[in-house]
Amino acid sequence: MLFAFRSLYLTGHFLIVCCFALLFCLVRPLHRDNTFFLAGLMSWSLPVLGIRLKRLNQSPVGNGAAVYIVNHQDVLDVFICTGMLPRNIAILGKTELRYIPVFGLAFWLAGNLYINRKNKAKAWDTMQSMAKIVKHRQRAVYIFPEGTRSKGQGMLPFKSGAFALAIEAGLPIVPIVFSSTHKNIDLHKWHAGYAAGKFLDPISTDGMGEEDVRRLADECREKMIKAVAEVDDEVAALDRNR
Q1: CA distance linking residue 34 with residue 178, whole number of Å
Q2: Which of 3, 67, 93, 213 would be 166's cystine partner, CB 3.0–4.6 Å?
Q3: Within 13 Å, how many C-alpha atoms sit on residue 129's CB side?
Q4: pLDDT in tens, 168-216
Q5: pTM score > 0.70 for this model?
Q6: Which residues of 214-235 are buried (b: 16+ CB within 10 A; e: fewer)?
Q7: How many CB atoms sit inside 10 A of residue 148's CB?
Q8: Residues 63-67: what's their mean pLDDT?
Q9: What is the number of other CB atoms lying within 10 angstroms of the CB of residue 177?
Q10: DSSP characters over 120-152
Q11: Residue 161 is inside which H or E element, if any?
């Protein structure tokens, strides 16, 4: 019963925020703080879900330009990850999202970016174009490098786009890791559990080129796998001391 109520609530909360976002962004389209503000509204649902979010630290680059890469787990990411977005952020989303009624238009008006991931032959050219936009706007970019939700399978292999963009734009990469929701969150319980998020140290892309993309992606993935295990230990300690 509790799970069903929460599922219904999540759907309603998401739709209401999307409708509000569309109206809000029509007033100030493409503003650099639209995504930060509207994403914060998504995270308001956490108390109703019985989830307590523990922010373990702050962004090491503040509100400066960077490419943030984040582990992508399940539908709860929309409500958990949004609780740790810095200001001046744009989310990089797949083009398929633009066809979702209301959400697709609101996402774009908020200042976020769409990318076509299907044409792999022109992937570097696409990231060069995207890098020009990011440089012009002086924005930080938020990307799920796995490209899809892992759904408890562990961290999936990383796609190259985030790393090509960071190199082409000359921006550092800042990994963000969140604790494993499939291990630590149970929406059937009144106190569903803890979620913890942590910013890792920035990784410089100075002097790198197209030939470094794959190595950089693998390096970041290994760092994030290790960090997720550490954050899971933090959550386990929180549960023991509750």
Answers
A1: 23
A2: 67
A3: 9
A4: 999 999 999 999 999 999 999 999 999 999 999 999 999 999 899 999 9
A5: yes
A6: eebbeebbebbeebbeebbeeb
A7: 10
A8: 93
A9: 25
A10: GGGHHHHHHHHHHHHHHHT-EEEE-TTSS--TT
A11: helix 161-169
**Could you write out the three-class secondary structure of 162-203?**
HHHHHHHHCCCEEEEEECCHHHHCCCCCCCCEEEEEEECCCE
Mean pLDDT, rounded, for 28-43: 94
Give the β-pairing of 173-178 and 51-55. Answer: unpaired
Statement: residue 125 has pLDDT above 80? no
Q: What secondary structure, in 3-state letters, does 51-93 show? A: EEEEECCCCCCCCCCCEEEECCCCCCHHHHHHHHCCCCEEEEE
Rounded Cα–Cα distance for residues 35 and 87 (Å): 8
Residue 11 half-sphere exposure toward CB, CA atoms < 13 A: 5
- pLDDT value at residue 124: 67
Residues 108, 153: Cα–Cα separation, whole Å: 30
Q: CA of 224: how far to CAs of 149, 157, 170, 196, 217, in Å?
A: 15, 12, 21, 14, 11
Q: Closest by alpha carbon to 220, among 164, 179, 180?
A: 164
Residue 199 · residue 19 · CB < 8 Å? no
If we measure between CA atoms, which residue out of 108, 110, 77, 73 comes closest to residue 94?
108
Average pLDDT for residues 76-96, to the nearest whole number?
92
Separation of CA 97 from chain center: 15
